[in-house]
Amino acid sequence: MTSAVAAHDELHAGSKPPPRGWRRLTAAGWLRVPWMTALFFGIGLGITLLVRWAEGWHPIWDGQVITTVELAAVPFGFLAGLGGFDYWAGYAIGSPTRPEDHSGHGAYSWRDYFRVNTDHKVIGVQYLVTTIFFFVAAGLLAMIMRAELARPGMQFVGNQVFNELFSVHAALMIFLFIIPAFAGLGNYVIPLMIGAPDMAFPRLNALSFWLLPVAGLMMLSSFFVPGFGCGWTGYAPLCSTHQELGAVFFNMGVQWAGASSIMTALNFLVTIITMRAPGMTFWRMPLLVWANFTTSLLVVIATPFIAGSQFMTMFDHIMHTNFFNYEAHGYVLGYQHIFWFYSHPAVYIMMLPGFGIASEVISTFARKPIFGYRLMALSLMAILVLGFSVWAHHMFVSGMAPWLRVPMMVTSVVIAVPTGIKVFSWLATLWEGKLNFSTPMLFALGFVSMFVIGGLSGIYLAAVPIDIDVSDTYFVVAHIHYVLFGGSLFTIFAGIYYWFPKMTGRMYNEKLGKLHFWLTFIGFNATFFPMHYLGIQGMPRRVSDYVPRFTDLNFFISIASFFLGASTLVFLYNMIVSWARGEPAPANPWRALTIEWQVSSPPPVFNFDEIPQVVGGPYEYGVPGARHAVFNGDRVVEEEEVRT
Amino acid sequence: MRRGVLVRVVAVGFAAAAVAFAVAFFIPWLPTPASKEADRIDFVFWFVTVICIAIFGLVVAVILYSVVRFRARPGDDSDGAPIHGHTGLEIAWTAVPAALVTAISVVSAVALAENDHLPKRHLQVNVTAQQFAWSFSYPKYNGLTVSSLHLPLNEAVELKMRSKDVIHSFWVPQFRQKQDVVPGITTRVVITPKRVGTYPVVCTELCGEGHALMRAEAVVMRPQAFAAWAKAQVQAAAKASQGAAGGGPGLAAFNSNGCSGCHTFKPAGSKATTGPDLDNLKMDAARAGKPLAAFVRESIVDPNAYIEKGYQPNIMPSTFKSLPKQQLDALVQFLTAGQK
After folding, report:
1. DSSP 8-state symbol, A372
2. Residues B279, B176 within the same domain
3. Which residue range is the domain that position B134 belongs to?
4. Of the candidates B210, B233, B256, which is a domain's last residue?
5. A9 touching chain B per CB within 8 A
6. Would you give the distance in Å from CA B181 to the centre of its chain?
7. Which domains does chain A have, with CATH numbers?
8. What pLDDT was estimated at residue B305?
9. What stretches in chain A show pLDDT beneath 70?
10. Degrees to nearest 5, angle at CA A619 with A615 and A621
11. Fewer CB atoms near the end CB (10 Å): N or C, chain A?
12. Structural domain count of chain B
């Protein structure tokens, strides 16, 4: 480790002296951000005005058009100021560059977390902290919604603001929390797990992180213009021609978050395909690596579709195109087909990494090999393929071609088969194990049981006749929260607790962790289970007001949701205090076999002083003498033992 | 030993299934069905529920049993049994769920086909949705247009639905049938009412600011009562359009534009409460500081100009500014004449 630091310091010192005086304004960093952002704002404004003047479009100064252009231009200024493009820009203008330039790699003080950093571990932490910020923000929006819904009639906010609350809540939770939180965990863990020194494209990795705060702030700021109140699904024509400027903040926010997602997925794919340690065959990869591999394929194939759908609604809105404008023979349902062709696979983008985390955690804390490892990996691939053939089950009542309903129902219920294989295999992994109920394990088991409920209510929704009754009601709200909260969020918590010692070098407080689990588990069920009933009884989703007969249950749900919201404080307190003052963590507190636990906590700046050699499967618990990976040093030690 | 384990797991499973069963059957989950389609949908619902309870019981049994039985004793750092898999089990839990979901698909497809079937003898109702009101018209009764859906008992009805602006969705929980109403295309849904009563019509697709308040009623009547109702409505509409008695063309405009869907107004016999009570327009005009007729006209063509206390802006459709002048005049006349 010390040799790596020394090597780094050498590189660091050799590459660039720290800038002084006015040069600090031109060096990459926060001092360059304000003026570069302003510069790009000016460029965007200038081009817009020039084009409008040259074409004779009136008025030349059109606030809507200018805002839309700036939502594309200003982030480039921000990213350029921070230094996201420096290496490539330098290469493009012919200044000398070194492929092995590690000047931006690694964190030596807290300041290094606030700049463009190419170390996958730093980026992983940046991802997680940022996404948890947006998780808290989106959670607070939900608290305001529940306060409003505690009583019928309007108390705190108006109808339009309420519509904005649930729209931004969902947009942030999906695009700025669940998807990137998994990307963050993967970023930290995957290279370590496969024995790689970093991701394949570290500079691209840094850039994909910095797109996230841009996207998140854009979605949050939709509140300050006439807002975005048409739901995260952004259905045309409500979200195109019938919506205010705020909708464009969502359209563009999705572009930035989507670009981030695609770049990270490409990075994962190349890393996993090309940078595995010697001996790490595909059938020796931990299941989290398999999960990120399949997820990345989903992202790369599907995400361009939502990007396209958002561009088309935005063009209908701002540029008077007619993709979905029925008055000009546009195809209204076309939006939904394109949107769900991404957004159904997105459900698996939000769930498969969670499957991977659950496999790691359950195997480690049950002290047993994963049951049916190969079938577990293959069922991920099956979900990947089937996931692209089910999008129209979101559209059974949409008025689409009626013949499409039964085939889409069949493919949708068939997905229950690979998903069932995974659930049953986790259960079989518990069997005859030695279960340790640390916080990650509690969250993993909580995930399995809650995800089963979410999966079963998914069967109801896949069956066309039942879906016709309950779609677009609170039943759906209950279902998606059982899948995304009980599923994705529980596994994110499991993953954060599991790798917290590795990331911070400190142990979290186990008692607070368990308290957090039980508060969350109880609050979650009390909040979301009654929603099934509300939906079947006749309460539609996305409403600011309801008929008085639903009052009691809504009041109960609101109280439960405040309880659930408060449970997050325990989590935040535990994370912050343990990060600052927790007990030092050993390299391998869980006695796990995968490679990330065979290096120090936190790992050396360049991960491995020597490249590990993979010699067996990742979960060989209980197999005498089995190893997953060995280091050269180990081999020397073993030979010495043999000699003595 | 092995048999003992199996017995215990099955016992836990039955206990879990019993709890799930109690939750499913002792809570009245489904509203009383009021259409023949609802019966078929409910059958699918319970079919799926039974399968789900079985799976849920199995999963809970294994988790609970494992949590208790396989808990590591304090200080026990040993590993579990190195079991890597079992081909027979893996085949079983691939094949059995596959068979179950196939059964669900078949049952669903049959129910769906039956619910889509429209008998030759049926009533057609044209449904129009707009932000944020419903209106229903009956081609068989001279194009009679009303703001709450009236249906005869035991006769299949085909709703043909169009939207004037954005996507809405027609749902009556007691009928179980739901269908989006999409601008630019005509969608359809079949309902065969089987219970007399009044049921809520709910918009379930987010359609803008007033989405939560876009409600109407569906009234199922005995065939004779329905015939009498339709006849009376047609006559009233005919009289009104001739200006012979009662509200005259103003009343006709009031009903055909969906005003009665949201507002209470005694001369029109409407009792809806989404918007302000129009029997008090005089007081409202005084509060707004405008002469009555001018206030009424302004409130129709520009609803946000004055918002009554306790109500929200942007809920009333702004489309009435494009009403023909004749209709608008008649409407203003009708509303002002109706004030005490």
Report:
1. T
2. no
3. 123-233
4. B233
5. no
6. 12
7. 117-595 (1.20.210.10), 607-643 (no CATH)
8. 86
9. 1-17, 633-644
10. 105
11. C
12. 3
Looking at the structure, tell me whether residues B191 and B248 fall in a common domain.
no
My answer on whether B131 and B211 are in the same domain is yes
Average pLDDT over residues B33-40: 96
Q: How far is A364 from chain B (nearest CA, A)?
A: 10
The partner residue sitting opposite A398, judged by closest CB among B77, B86, B180, is B180
B135-158: pLDDT as tens digits: 999 999 988 888 889 999 999 999
Contact, A335 vs A236, CB < 8 A? yes
CATH assignment at residue B225: 2.60.40.420
Distance (Å, rounded) from C-alpha A520 to C-alpha A523?
5
Place of tokens 């008090």: B280
d(CA A440, CA A449): 14
Which strands, in side-by-side order, build the sheet including B149-152? B149-152, B215-221, B197-203, B168-171, B178-181
* CB nearest to B70's CB, from A333, A424, A432: A432
**Which two three-digit tokens encode residue A329?**
């023979």
Q: What is the residue-averaged pLDDT of chain B?
A: 89
In a domain, B19, yes or no: yes
Residue B74 placed within a domain = no
CB contact under 8 A, A238 and B83: no
In one-letter notation, the amino acid at residue B194 is K
Residue that finishes a domain, picked among B233, B259, B276? B233
Residues B7 and B111 in one domain: yes
Q: How much is the ipTM here? A: 0.90
Nearest CB to A371; choose among B30, B83, B202: B83
**How far apart are the CA of B183 and the nearest CA of chain A, in angstroms?**
6
d(CA A132, CA A177): 7
Segment 309-328 of chain A within 8 Å of chain B by CB: 326-327
Query: Has residue B71 been placed in a domain?
Result: no
CATH number, domain with residue B296: 1.10.760.10
Query: Rounded distance, CA A481 to CA B67, Å?
Result: 25
CB contact under 8 A, B105 and A413: yes
From CA A540, how far away is CA A149, in angstroms rounded?
13
> Are B112 and B129 contained in the same domain?
no
Q: Does A407 touch chain B (CB under 8 A)?
A: no
pTM across the whole model:
0.92
Name the residue among B83, B85, B212 with its Cβ closest to that of A545. B212
Q: Report if residue B259 sits inside a domain.
A: yes
pLDDT at B327 over 90: no
Q: How far is A551 from chain B (nearest CA, A)?
A: 15
Nearest CB to B177 within list A242, A434, A468: A468
Q: Which residues of A fall within a CB distance of 8 Å from B115?
A: 465, 468
Statement to judge: residues B183 and B140 lie in one domain: yes
Residue of B nearest to A160 (CA): B209
Which residues, numbered 518 to 537 in chain A, qualify as contacts with chain B under a Cβ-Cβ cut-off of 8 Å?
A: 532-533, 536-537
* Predicted pLDDT at A105: 87
- By residue count, chain A amounts to 644
Q: What is the tens place of the pLDDT at every residue in B254-297?
A: 877 778 778 888 888 777 777 888 988 888 888 888 888 889 99
